[in-house]
Amino acid sequence: MADAEAGEFWGFFGGCAPLPRKIACDEDKTDVSLSTRLFCVEKGQAEPVEADSLTREFLDTNKCYTLDCGAEVFVWMGRNTTLDERKSVSGAAERVSPSC
């Protein structure tokens, strides 16, 4: 995802563009189109959010989410979440992200 697209993504969900973190990987070289999946993370467990299309209304400010775009994983932390919930979603995002 280009920087302009990342900023547009975060602007749509009311946040700021993330700092880039590039990990060299053979998977980066593939042109495979993967589906985008949204997960709600509670107590360290990621549960898929079933929907035909994603909108801001799916996001609850009392919960944390990961958005798996195949090559990239984004984390959204609700405004009213605890520090433990935020740590939990970060760990879940690491488990979802593609390994090299």
Automatic annotation (TrEMBL):
Domain annotation Gelsolin-like: ranges: 48-87
Family annotation (Pfam families): Gelsolin
Source organism superkingdom: Eukaryota
InterPro entries per record: ADF-H/Gelsolin-like_dom_sf, Gelsolin-like_dom, Villin/Gelsolin
Coiled coil: none
Gene3D superfamilies attached to this UniProt entry: Severin (3.40.20.10)
Protein name, as recorded: Gelsolin-like domain-containing protein
Record organism: Salix suchowensis
